[in-house]
Amino acid sequence: MRPSKRAFDEMRPVSFERGVARYAEGSCLVKFGSTHVLCTATLEDKPPPWLRGQGRGWVTAEYAMLPRATHTRTKRESTSGKPSGRTQEIQRLIGRSLRAVTNLPQLGERQIMIDCDVIQADGGTRTASITGAWLALRDCFEWMRSRSIIKENPLRDHVAAVSCGIFNGKPITDLDYAEDSTAQTDANFVITGSGGLVEIQATAEVSVFSPQELQSLLELAQKGVADLVALQKAALA
């Protein structure tokens, strides 16, 4: 039995609230159970310097955890002057995930900055960030299209992410902190709405895992992402 009493393939309750940041071109408050992340999308009317003159845009991301998102206060990384290795890894993952489903030439020489701020953490902050960020990005593109900044929405597909792992010897999906902190194997899957794989991160935390177990985790992730994409579509309806 999982600590959360969920079935092995059962997600936590997931919700999306769009338009929560008044001044952002796109925003979404995403909740995966007790993990809550505010995602905003900001239009910058120029590309990064290294991309100028190439006729295409860019989507990038920053990720941060608020000081009391966890049980004890975490010092703001901005005060240290440099994000941690974990933070850099996560924000690069978010950016790669969104660029994978974006037609960058259609964006023109512009950049969209995605900010993912974890308000409350209970496992799966990176997967919740990616899933909510897609909605913020989509609404930013629609904001641009409605003002004739771009002719059509550059998004080619949905993208969402879910964590899976082996807990007490069993593959499970959407791990909360109690499960993630003691799992034998921890994995994150980023998958498009059409089923394409964007990224797989899988690590043996306690003992090695087999190819068959990895396949089991992938199948759980495919089901979980399909459910998340359906919820993204419902949020847009």
TrEMBL record:
<dbReference type="GO" id="GO:0009022">
    <property type="term" value="F:tRNA nucleotidyltransferase activity"/>
</dbReference>
<feature type="binding site">
    <location>
        <position position="86"/>
    </location>
    <ligand>
        <name>phosphate</name>
    </ligand>
</feature>
<dbReference type="InterPro" id="IPR018336">
    <property type="entry name" value="RNase_PH_CS"/>
</dbReference>
<feature type="domain" description="Exoribonuclease phosphorolytic">
    <location>
        <begin position="10"/>
        <end position="140"/>
    </location>
</feature>
<keyword id="KW-0820">tRNA-binding</keyword>
<dbReference type="Pfam" id="PF01138">
    <property type="entry name" value="RNase_PH"/>
</dbReference>
<keyword id="KW-0694">RNA-binding</keyword>
<dbReference type="GO" id="GO:0016075">
    <property type="term" value="P:rRNA catabolic process"/>
</dbReference>
<dbReference type="InterPro" id="IPR002381">
    <property type="entry name" value="RNase_PH_bac-type"/>
</dbReference>
<comment type="subunit">
    <text>Homohexameric ring arranged as a trimer of dimers.</text>
</comment>
<keyword id="KW-0808">Transferase</keyword>
<comment type="similarity">
    <text>Belongs to the RNase PH family.</text>
</comment>
<keyword id="KW-0548">Nucleotidyltransferase</keyword>
<dbReference type="GO" id="GO:0000175">
    <property type="term" value="F:3'-5'-RNA exonuclease activity"/>
</dbReference>
<feature type="domain" description="Exoribonuclease phosphorolytic">
    <location>
        <begin position="159"/>
        <end position="224"/>
    </location>
</feature>
<dbReference type="Pfam" id="PF03725">
    <property type="entry name" value="RNase_PH_C"/>
</dbReference>
<feature type="binding site">
    <location>
        <begin position="124"/>
        <end position="126"/>
    </location>
    <ligand>
        <name>phosphate</name>
    </ligand>
</feature>
<dbReference type="InterPro" id="IPR027408">
    <property type="entry name" value="PNPase/RNase_PH_dom_sf"/>
</dbReference>
<dbReference type="InterPro" id="IPR001247">
    <property type="entry name" value="ExoRNase_PH_dom1"/>
</dbReference>
<dbReference type="InterPro" id="IPR036345">
    <property type="entry name" value="ExoRNase_PH_dom2_sf"/>
</dbReference>
<protein>
    <recommendedName>
        <fullName>Ribonuclease PH</fullName>
        <ecNumber>2.7.7.56</ecNumber>
    </recommendedName>
</protein>
<dbReference type="GO" id="GO:0000049">
    <property type="term" value="F:tRNA binding"/>
</dbReference>
<keyword id="KW-0698">rRNA processing</keyword>
<keyword id="KW-0819">tRNA processing</keyword>
<dbReference type="GO" id="GO:0008033">
    <property type="term" value="P:tRNA processing"/>
</dbReference>
<dbReference type="InterPro" id="IPR050080">
    <property type="entry name" value="RNase_PH"/>
</dbReference>
<dbReference type="GO" id="GO:0031125">
    <property type="term" value="P:rRNA 3'-end processing"/>
</dbReference>
<comment type="function">
    <text>Phosphorolytic 3'-5' exoribonuclease that plays an important role in tRNA 3'-end maturation. Removes nucleotide residues following the 3'-CCA terminus of tRNAs; can also add nucleotides to the ends of RNA molecules by using nucleoside diphosphates as substrates, but this may not be physiologically important. Probably plays a role in initiation of 16S rRNA degradation (leading to ribosome degradation) during starvation.</text>
</comment>
<dbReference type="InterPro" id="IPR020568">
    <property type="entry name" value="Ribosomal_Su5_D2-typ_SF"/>
</dbReference>
<dbReference type="InterPro" id="IPR015847">
    <property type="entry name" value="ExoRNase_PH_dom2"/>
</dbReference>
